[in-house]
Every structure is written in structure tokens, then in C-alpha cells.
Automatic annotation (TrEMBL):
PANTHER family the UniProt entry points to: RIBULOSE-5-PHOSPHATE-3-EPIMERASE (PTHR11749)
Gene of this entry: rpe
Keywords from the UniProt entry: Carbohydrate metabolism, Cobalt, Isomerase, Manganese, Metal-binding, Zinc
Pathway stated in the Swiss-Prot or TrEMBL entry: Carbohydrate degradation
Protein name per its UniProtKB record: Ribulose-phosphate 3-epimerase
Lineage: Bacteria, Pseudomonadati, Campylobacterota, Epsilonproteobacteria, Nautiliales
Similarity comment: Belongs to the ribulose-phosphate 3-epimerase family.
GO cellular component, one term: cytoplasm
InterPro entries, per database record: Aldolase_TIM, Ribul_P_3_epim, Ribul_P_3_epim-like, RibuloseP-bd_barrel
A biological-process GO annotation: pentose catabolic process
Top-level taxon in the UniProt lineage: Bacteria
Source organism per UniProt: Caminibacter pacificus
Amino acid sequence: MKIAPSILSADFGKLADEVKAVCDGGADLIHVDVMDGHFVPNMTMGPMIVEAVAKVSTKPLDIHFMVENIPFFVDMYKHLNPEFISFHIEEEKHINRVIQKIRNEGIRPAVVLNPATPVCLLEYIVSDVDMVLLMSVNPGFGGQKFIPSVIDKIKELRELAEKKNPNLLIEVDGGVNNKNAPLLKEAGADILVAGSYVFKSGDYKKAIESLRV
Ligand code: DX5
Ligand code: ZN
């Protein structure tokens, strides 16, 4: 199981130290939540802040766009060379085109589903992406309560991936903690995003290890 701490719950007053601390604490990826105040009712990090994060991070970036006008955002953040860029299919009319745009930049493309968006919408996309991110809260804020129906969605997606893309990575984001991590693993998740669980803990290394079930 790989762990991607979400820096949304970090102390932004000392962001560089926070990023270094989770990298040293065993993070596999740094999850960066980009929100535009339109797709979700919150705003977070522009490219200049993410550039500062990229500079100090010893781990690859996993950028999660919660934005409208996704191609514009891809162009604004692509020079940061993230490992993954993920975008919400609820927002995009031309999903395959945006997947290809991300891949053309040498970045691994991923799509995101909100909790109420069904897995069946991925039938003709799943073979074109490297990862699917399943939201286990409604996007916009850290510290929300885990929505358990994601467990069935992981299983359903794993079955679809077995047929269409056996290398697909499944990432889960929202309300992840040491109680639900074993259930997420058992259902078929590969990467867990955790914001408040890691950053509100006193010991980042211990928190990250406790998720690596
Ligand atoms: C929510 C973000 C998450 C958030 C998770 O919209 O996509 O990445 O930071 O935070 P927790 O782990 O506190 O739910
Ligand atoms: Zn996220």
C-alpha cells in the first residue's frame, strides 16, 4: 500500500518543513489539492505555491485538480513535472482528449469520481488512464467524514480493471484513517490519500506507517 499525505491539512505557515517532514516520514507521494472556488466551494494552491512544494519534496507530486477549465490548469501546472495529474470526469466533456493532453506532457493521467458518480462511467476510459481516484468524501475540504459506499466502488472498479486494464492503480481520498485503511486495502485500493489523519497526528511517521496495512 502506498501513502500520499495531502498537504491541504499541513500548516501553510511552514509548508516547506511540513513537506520535508512527511517525505522523511515515509510518504510515497505528496498529494496536492488544487481548488478553484468554482468546481468546489474552496480555493487552495496556485502554481507558485506548488512550485515551492516541488522544490523541497523528495517524493513525486500527485496533483488532484478540483477545477473547471481543466486543460488551462494542466498548462499552468505541467512544468512542475508531477507524477500524476488527476481530474474530475464530472467536469469534463472531452475526457479522452484531456487524458491524452496530460500523457503528451509525460505525466501519468488519472480520473476522479465523486462519491455519487458511478463506476460504470469508466467503462470506455479505464484502459486509457494509469490511475483512478475514488473520492470517499465530497471534494472541497479536509477533515470530513469517510463515506463507506466507496468500498463497494473499489471492488466494482477492480473487477472492471481486471478485464480492461490490469495495471490500473486505485487511489482513495477523503476521511482515510487507520480504521478504514484495512477495509480499503481488502477491497483493492493501491494508494491512500490522508490529510488530517497524518497532519493532525503528533507523529507523521507513525501515522503514515499505521495506514500501510
Ligand atoms: C478533499 C481533498 C482531500 C483532502 C483529504 O477535497 O481532495 O485530498 O485533503 O483530507 P482528509 O484526509 O482530512 O479527508
Ligand atoms: Zn485530494
